[in-house]
Amino acid sequence: MHYYSLEKLINLCDGYRKTFKIDSHHLLLLQVDGQRFLIESLCPHRAYPLSMADIQGHVLICPKHAYCFDLRSGQVKHYSEEPCRDLRRYELVYQGNEVGVMLD
Question: Which pTM value belongs to this model?
Answer without folding.
Answer: 0.95
